[in-house]
């Protein structure tokens, strides 16, 4: 999607950019999608003729243009003394000739993106960030026909939106294919509206499947080297049969241009969401009410697990379906509705697919033993050696690089936690220690050590010191800024 305004959503989508100074650009960032350059894949597909495919699908791909009203700060008058030569000049600002005398004003912004028709009656799929908070949406067909579009509904979590136009005759359309069947290395074709130029075709291959770019809980992107540029957002990624296998959404780029690493929302994720928006105008997702984290090798070893399959429950929300069903912090979720959980992000996807109100079987490991919990899945709301002496002053053991203190009323107030919280507050962390290596810092609260809740600082210190003899990391649960998480903490080498 293309816009004159600077990127607004860089914080939300830019987290993947950490390594090697590369940055993730989505059309949500620059309002249109992705950015410039030609794909190296186009030279890598000798002998493949995309002309018939392009002729078949181009009529169903549309340009999406939007306008919206945004507030713009007015010019603030400088505080010059009266009687200076600037008086007459700045009177023009005061009477509204320039900048409305310092008052905010409303301006109109325009943006461009892509979309595709999935029904001859005029239903069109695009990205949520393409439409944003638009007050006016217009769709332009390949033959130049322009029509106003209505927003039927959108889903921010997957960056999808559904539009509707009222055509005078049936429109050309395309259909979804099962993206699960697409293989890495297969040829694909992207169609969209890069830089507002109109229908443009680029070709490449499927570079990878199941990519997590840290844009949200349902990341499961198709990676492609077909050139995806600014304005391609919301456009389709086709297989060689002319079926939509993905919706082009983002690129990974060190320079801001297309370098052959683009990402598309897979059709298997998009199709049911689009259908639900079409049927209901919104999306309802199943909800457990747990905070989860990945199982690292160290965590798995400290819990006596054979591998890192599953998702570790870091916290259970009070009064949630999970809490009512008996799921506990420290459980490892290994299956949802009979589907295995290989990675922690599988839980969000599998639970979200369960209709709210459905009784669902959740498979967990508790203290290494398998068990099955029956949960009445709810509806997702709209939406982480030490010791202390008896008088509460910290003392250092050196084994873990920690010093712990009690949770006094003053400490609880300072950390914004309940004064009834049981555990120990970290008072000091030794630089270069195992605790520092795990990212622990003063103000963190230790809640559990070795799978059991600790009553106070002394109890936590005893549990940590006792774990030193096990010759493996000890599982520790901490709370920080209202979030709870587990980590595997080793003692210093003897």
Structural description of this entry:
With 494 residues, the chain is of the alpha+beta class. The chain contains eleven helices and 31 strands. The strands form five sheets. Strands 1, 3, 4, 5, 6, 7, 8 and 9 form an eight-stranded antiparallel sheet that branches. Strands 24, 25, 26, 27, 28, 29, 30 and 31 form an eight-stranded antiparallel sheet that branches.
Tell me the distance between the termini: 58 Å
Quick one: CATH class of the largest domain?
Mainly Beta
Structural class: alpha+beta
Instruction: Give helix % range.
Output: 10-25%
Can you tell me the CATH architecture of the largest domain?
Beta Barrel
The dominant shape is elongated
Features:
single chain; 494 residues; alpha+beta; Thrombin, subunit H; Pdz3 Domain; 3 domains; eight-stranded antiparallel beta sheet; 11 helices; 16% helix; disordered N terminus; PDZ_sf; periplasm
Brief rundown of the structure:
With 494 residues, this protein is of the alpha+beta class. It is built from 11 helices and 31 strands.
Topology at a glance:
Elements (H helix, E strand, L loop, with lengths): L1 E2 L6 H4 L9 E4 L24 H7 L3 E12 L14 H8 L10 E15 L3 E4 L1 H4 L4 E5 L5 E3 L1 E6 L4 E5 L22 E6 L7 E12 L9 E4 L11 E3 L5 E10 L8 E5 H14 L5 E2 L2 E5 L2 H6 L8 E6 L4 H5 L6 E5 L2 E2 L4 H8 L6 E8 L2 E8 L1 E2 L6 E3 L5 E3 L5 E4 L3 H7 L8 E6 L4 H4 L7 E5 L2 E2 L3 H11 L6 E7 L2 E7 L5
Antiparallel strand pairs: 1-4, 2-14, 3-4, 3-6, 4-5, 5-9, 6-7, 8-9, 10-11, 10-13, 11-12, 12-15, 13-14, 14-15, 16-23, 17-18, 18-19, 19-20, 19-21, 21-22, 24-25, 25-26, 26-27, 27-28, 28-29, 28-30, 30-31
